[in-house]
Amino acid sequence: MKAVHFGAGNIGRGFIGELLFESGFETTFIDVVQPIIDYINASHSYEMYVIDNNYEKKVIKNVKAVSSITDEPAAVEAICEADIITTSVCVDNLDKIAPTLAKGLKERLNRGGSKVNVMACENAFYATDMLKKALVENKKAPITEAELDEIGAFPNVAVDRIALCKVVDGVKIPQIQSTFELVIEKDKMVDPTAQPIKGAEYVENLGMYLERKLYVFNCGHAATAYFGYYNNRATIFDALEVPEIKADVIAVMKESAMAMTKKYPFTFEELEAYIEKIIKRISLEELHDEVVRVGRSPIRKLNAKDRLVGPALLAEQYGLDNSHLAKAIAAGYAFDCKDDEQAVEIQNYIAENGIEKAVEKYSSLTAEHALYQKVIDAYKALKA
Ligand SMILES: NC(=O)c1ccc[n+]([C@@H]2O[C@H](COP(=O)([O-])OP(=O)(O)OC[C@H]3O[C@@H](n4cnc5c(N)ncnc54)[C@H](O)[C@@H]3O)[C@@H](O)[C@H]2O)c1
Ligand SMILES: O=P(O)(O)OC[C@@H](O)[C@@H](O)[C@H](O)[C@H](O)CO
């Protein structure tokens, strides 16, 4: 069995690549970073380490890598031959992989190939749907929605594993936490009874798992990163060592959890137990997970559908308290990390246009939302 995975980064190699290997796939990674491609091809294997298991070394075999920049025909060929196609490139890059993927799927269709599952393993609100939209909208390799439906199936996915890396000789080597969850939208698969990736869960009600992951876990994680950054803490562990930050983060997660209980059949007690488990996982000292990694790409994270504004709006819709979420969003707007392109863009925009216009532009909030003024007030309080 053959797999194609776009993005040989922390999650690509440290999570999806491992599960594909354990499930018997021969995986072709498609990436744009030549040193990673060369490293994988040197031995057709790669190493990864399990942080919370005494850095146990795992070797993942039966892999190769191709560059979509210098060898797109090889990428297209791999897509034509694949039994499954996955991605983990960050949703901001889905439009960049779309032309190569579209070219491959169109060629597969022209050759009369079989229908293939395509899944975007990204932290976002229904990332596979976003990928499908990017495929249809890409101008370089036109493909219609009808053609996509003829050659592919597009299940959404919830993806959970803390995957970091250590740089050795210029190559990022994945360092992962043992706990993981990969939840797949069963009814959208080519064959809803098949379970091609071992270790994954196949469910009919993905929404509740996806939103719990993004709106509770990633929500609390991002809040920790932004509060921590504001308070000059380097890592998530350091941030959660500060009792006030920890209390605020738990309050943020509970506001989000309360909204989840209105939308889905979760009890608040279940979600409290989930929050406790997540706080334990993210505050493991050995992770050395930097607040700048967890807070990265704030334009993406402050989007109305993403992990902070998404649950805050949901809480508002149900008439629930979202004041701690508003404070976390404000801290996101205060994230002035110079090494993060998106943070620099937001800071420049705020400097030129003010926080009000920034909140309108990046979070699509207007004075019609009660949340709008709460975020602005919280931001001004932070800056006072
Ligand atoms: N790291 C985690 O703990 C974690 C956990 C769950 C989900 N995720 C999600 O997984 C995705 C990837 O995160 P990551 O931490 O692995 O990031 P990463 O930066 O380590 O990996 C991204 C990879 O994508 C590659 N890439 C970028 N643009 C590309 C393009 N146009 N074509 C091909 N490859 C391209 C990069 O070179 C890199 O190797 C994100 O959506 C993230 O939200 C991450
Ligand atoms: O990957 P991002 O940038 O969407 O979010 C940063 C972290 O919250 C994220 O990578 C978590 O570590 C991961 O989602 C855990 O499963």
Automatic annotation (TrEMBL):
Its gene is mtlD
Record domain Mannitol dehydrogenase C-terminal: where: 206-382
| PANTHER family hit by this protein | ALTRONATE OXIDOREDUCTASE-RELATED, MANNITOL-1-PHOSPHATE 5-DEHYDROGENASE
MF term (GO), any: mannitol-1-phosphate 5-dehydrogenase activity
Database matches in Gene3D superfamilies? N-(1-d-carboxylethyl)-l-norvaline Dehydrogenase, domain 2 (1.10.1040.10), NAD(P)-binding Rossmann-like Domain (3.40.50.720)
- Which InterPro entries is this protein grouped with? 6-PGluconate_DH-like_C_sf, 6PGD_dom2, Mannitol_1_phos_5_DH, Mannitol_DH, Mannitol_DH_C, Mannitol_DH_N, NAD(P)-bd_dom_sf
Its EC number(s): 1.1.1.17
**Has keyword Oxidoreductase?**
yes
> Keywords in UniProt for this one?
NAD, Oxidoreductase
- Residues in domain Mannitol dehydrogenase N-terminal? 1-192
What family does the database annotate? Belongs to the mannitol dehydrogenase family.
Quote the cellular component terms of the Gene Ontology held in the record: cytosol
Residue stretches in coiled coil: none
Please report the name of this protein according to its UniProt entry.
Answer: Mannitol-1-phosphate 5-dehydrogenase
Q: Cite a single Pfam family from the UniProt record.
A: Mannitol_dh
Q: Which domain of life is it from?
A: Bacteria
State any GO BP term from the record. mannitol catabolic process
Reactions listed under catalytic activity:
D-mannitol 1-phosphate + NAD(+) = beta-D-fructose 6-phosphate + NADH + H(+)
In which residues is NAD(+) bound? A3, V4, H5, F6, G7, A8, G9, N10, I11, G12, R13, G14
Q: Which organism is it from?
A: Megamonas hypermegale
